[in-house]
Each structure stands twice: as structure tokens, then as C-alpha cells.
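Sample intake sheet
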Amino acid sequence: MKRIAAALLCGVMVLASVVPAAAQVVIVSAAASLMDAFNVIKKDFEKEHPGARLVFNFGASGALYRQIEQGAPVDVFASADMRWMDEAVRIGRVEATESNVFARNWIVLAVPKNNPAGVSTLKDLENAGVRRIGVVTPDTSPAGNYARQSLKDLELWEVLESKYIFAETVTQLLSYLRLGEMDAGFFFASDAVRGADSVAVVMEMPMREPALYSIAPLSDTKHPDLAQAFVRFILSEKGQAVLSGYGFRKAE
């Protein structure tokens, strides 16, 4: 097993050690933008399945896929980008028929609540007073990839290139904005809901297509019944209601 998968295994073992020995630990690798919603869903799911304990591994979808590719012990994968789920299918760790689209998201331009750089349009990002623009690393994060694609379509990606500060995850980028370390940033609308107390949305970005979130049990999960039960819970009216409350739109 490669180093990154081993590191994940160690982390999971630490988390699993705090749950009762009789509990069945279900490991869910999920996009960082799902953190708040999934933590609420965890409570409801565990009430309905008292013998189960969900352990979450949140991160950029591309990084989570790399862990899965390298053999990390995962029961359920929830990706914010269909390409990483498709890759998991390609390498045989997910069955194509088990993958379900469960939510949509979109990219927004946001600023700290007090908006010190006075950003109100995309054009304002070119101003000298705007020095730091936050973007999640595009090669591993769907939020960063969609932001890059949108800015390229608007012929702004290269124009603003010297101002980018790259974060590893949306959660990290949101923290930068909350602390006022960025003048503006691009992330998912659901993350703007998470940070509504300290960030303000300037505008929704034009996108070729919305970000589609997909979820599936891993083909080699040790707890297939519980893994599939969690997927069904996410797709249920109760699960969808929680996701909607955190800014996600239903899949169409």
C-alpha cells in the first residue's frame, strides 16, 4: 500500500478507536464542501442504524480519488466532480451501476464581509487594490477546476494569474477569506452558505454546466449493507432536505 493510503489508514484507525468495539465503522471519503451537511446527516443516519459509526475523510475530490487508487480503506466515495467518480469506476473500485448523482453546485465570487478592496464586479479584480485572489488548486479540487474553466471562458484566467493564492481545499480558502487574508475568492455556493457570517457573495459565475456530485459504495467495502444504506439516505427526502439547507441544489 502506498504512503498516502497508509497515512489515511492510520488516521482512520485513530478515529475508529474512539467508537465502541461492537460498532461497524463505515469510512466515507467525501468532498470538503460536503463537511457541514454530512456531519448533520451523520447524526440522523446513526440514530437509524445504531450499530454503525460513520467516519469521514474530507478533502479535495481529486486527492480522495488518489487515496482510493492507492488502496485506501474506503467504504463510500462522494465526489464533487464526476471525472473522479468515473476514474474510480475505471480502476474497478466502484461499479458503474452503483454511482448516483445526488446534488448540484455552482461557483461564486465572494469577498470578506467588509469587502476592503471594494470588489463588486469581475472587472474590479483587475484593480491594483486587489492583490490576493483565492482559488482552490484546480488540478485536484472541483471548485478550483470549475473556477478556472469559467475564468478562462471569460478570458480572465491569465489576466489575474499573478494574484492567485492557491488553497488545498475549499474549507481552507473559506478560512482565508474569513481572516481577511484574501481580497476575493472563488468557491462553491454551498461554501458561501457555510461562511455567511463572514463572507459575502458578489455574483454567481457563468458555467458551462453545474458541478454534479456523485456518491457510490466501494466495490470492496467490508460493510456493503451499511455503505448502500448511507447512499440511500443521501438520496432520500431527509438527506436531500439537509443538503438543500446547506446551499446544494437537487440533481436533475
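Comment: The two ends are 38 Å apart (CA to CA). The mean pLDDT is 91.
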